[in-house]
Amino acid sequence: MTDTIATVLAGLVGASVIFMGVHAFRAPQAAAGFGIPDTPTEDRGFQAWLSVKAVRDIASGLFILILLAGGTTHLLGWFMLAAGAIPVGDAVIVLRSNGPKATAYGIHGATAVVILAIGALLLIA
Predict the structure, then answer these.
(1) Is the dihedral of CA 66, 72, 76, 79 positive or negative?
(2) Dihedral through CA 83, CA 89, CA 94, CA 96, nearest 10?
(3) How far apart are the C-alpha atoms of 25 and 3, rounded to whole Å?
(4) 9-48 as b/e: b if 16+ CB within 10 A
(5) What is the chain's Cα-based Rg?
(6) Contact 102/74 with Cβ under 8 angstroms?
């Protein structure tokens, strides 16, 4: 039962990350919520950076879905633990940019905790 719940949650994370990546391509202004103050969402250079982030998000979500389709729960669990480094890094970026601590911890930190918990559940299942 635990493995089913963790697998479904991993699938939801994968789909959500793909959605966020696609959304970043379609509406770069939404990146202002990432947590970096004075984000120049209309700047072409920033939009190029955002495209890089969007590709990272889409690929990460696809990796999760691929592992759901053809991997084992343990392999997916290890991937989720490794993927937990992404929101941790995002939180560090927000903090280093003097962004809101609520965003760093409440969004990126909470995301890291959820991803790491799913990874741990998949490994013990």
Answers:
(1) negative
(2) 180
(3) 33
(4) bbbebbeebbebbeebeeebeebeebbbeebeeeeeeebe
(5) 15
(6) no
Tell me if 83 sits within 8 A of 115, measured CB to CB.
yes
Longest dimension (CA), the chain: 48
How far is it, in rounded angstroms, from Cα 21 to Cα 42?
Answer: 18
At which residue do the structure tokens 């939801």 appear? 12
pLDDT per residue rounded down to tens, the chain (125 residues): 888 899 999 999 999 999 999 988 888 777 666 677 777 777 888 888 888 888 999 999 999 999 999 989 999 999 999 999 999 999 999 999 998 999 899 999 999 999 999 999 999 98
Number of H helices, E strands in the chain: 6, 0
Distance CA 122, CA 125 (A): 5
